[in-house]
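Q&A log
Question type: sequence-to-structure
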Amino acid sequence: MAVRTPLILDGSNNLIEMTTAQINAVKDRCRYLYGASPSVTLSYVASSGNLSPTMADTRKTAGASSSSVTTYPAETATDEPGTVTVSYDRISQAATDTAESADTNNTAFPIYYDGSDIRAMSLTDLYDTFIYPAIDTITGAVGQPGTYRIHTATALTGYTAVSTSIVFKDTRANVNAYNAIEIPETLDQPTDVTNYYLLKANNISAPSMEKMLFIDANANLEQYTNTEIDVILENSIKHVASEVTGSRIRYNINGTGTNLGTQINDTRLNGAGNHQIRFVNADDYRAQEFPDGTATTINSWQLKVNQT
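Response status: OK
Response body:
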């Protein structure tokens, strides 16, 4: 129920307490183990993703054209530019169902000296000493192993694309595609502005750590093998990240937490409409309003990670 200082053997097989640097190396090992097999993941889906809120790209379109046999239809007689909305819900979050590490005979975890006796850590001690601090680091900065980010390309140093499919596309009306000589123009003529992708951070290199000790079935002190302690640390950090309230790793959009990568923006032209006319013949006068204005950010979304 507290942060402990584990015991290790020095070069003469004497019991000594781990240094702060050695304890930090174990925390880094926990981050590495989580990065190799995270228990809370994000994935790309074609639709119906569960990471809310749903994001929406909007863009202006031309209004419907008007015609007259006597004169050009006035601006007040033509339809105003419309709006197209495309919803994006392409990110899903999943948390693995896990079980806490078993504390066989209350001696499964590393030993420490309490001032009078050598004792085995409790599971809570293990969490306090290694797991909670590792999760604090994982959720405290972008680029941590096993976490994600939004980026405007599928390639970024230190990351791998979850999918080459976009999770959001910002589009705007292509004002250069509209021409009065072609009235009635196609209403929706978009241009792509920015694509957004979901990327996963690559793992860190495997940190080495000192061999900690545990109490075996015969009440002797024994060093863990690398595999034995890795199993305990990996299972513990995956379980806490997935299921321990207050320290669960969770992703959200526009909630609280650490910003992960590029902000997603929906931009749109802000004009009231560009009224254009076309003379076809003495009995055919046409008019139509095209999208116009400057690009304005209508809405923004930020992928975040926090602890819940």
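Response note: The chain has one domain: 7-307.
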